[in-house]
Predict the structure of Vitamin B12 import ATP-binding protein BtuD.
Amino acid sequence: MANSLKEKTSLAGAQPEVVIDPAREPIVVVDGLHIVYRVYGAGSKGSAASALMRIVKRQNRPQMKEVHAVKGVSFVAYRGDAIGVVGTNGSGKSTLLAAIAGLLPPARGGVYTDGQPSLLGVNAALMKDLTGSRNIILGCLAMGLTQEETKAKYDEIVKFADLKPGFIDYPMSTYSSGMGARLRFAIAAARTHDVMLIDEALATGDAKFKRRSKAKIDELRQDAGAVFLVAHNLDVIEETCNRVIWLDDGRMKMDGDPEEVLAAYTKATGK
């Protein structure tokens, strides 16, 4: 779980790698963050079936490989920021968001937040066997809304998700990926978040949905803390964010104005 900013400021003798602007209100501090995955079974020779048989027969132990996904990343996000995170596949974008959300423990360094981060991903878990309607209720209650607040938000969520007629009463297993993504975003955006982390949730929406999502993110920036957005669609990043972080092989490549960072990223990657 991410530590609080109060804990950060109380660390005796700490030598932070980041400098906080005293004129602004910090809401997330990422300080020399390293995230390391341990992958078991990596490097085994032969097929997956033969590797499994060796494990079952205890002929040898599965090999372990360390994957250094985030390497010494440091930055400060301030209240009101909408920060886009770009990078090629495997650059550490989703790992960074998961670490800010408190879902991955740092190997070194730390993440400090003022409030509770909420991670919204395209694969965010809703119950596929339940209807969209039931998932709205369960999702809102899981976010801490009362039954009365959930009832008050229900019609707004349904309208925002813009599902095909009647689909709100169908199981989510019948939804397309775009419909599921829209409903997840609509549920998550129904409450004010201290820090909202969006991982590719806008990638499957049409132009109309992206415009509504941008307006909702602008609203969240005004009413809450900060928004982080990972998306391969650079137009979405440029239109939505006031700042962009570029990750390359787990390291911070650039952090700054969207137009400048995206131009450099596009030139380097040809995307």
In short: DSSP finds nine helices and ten strands in the chain.
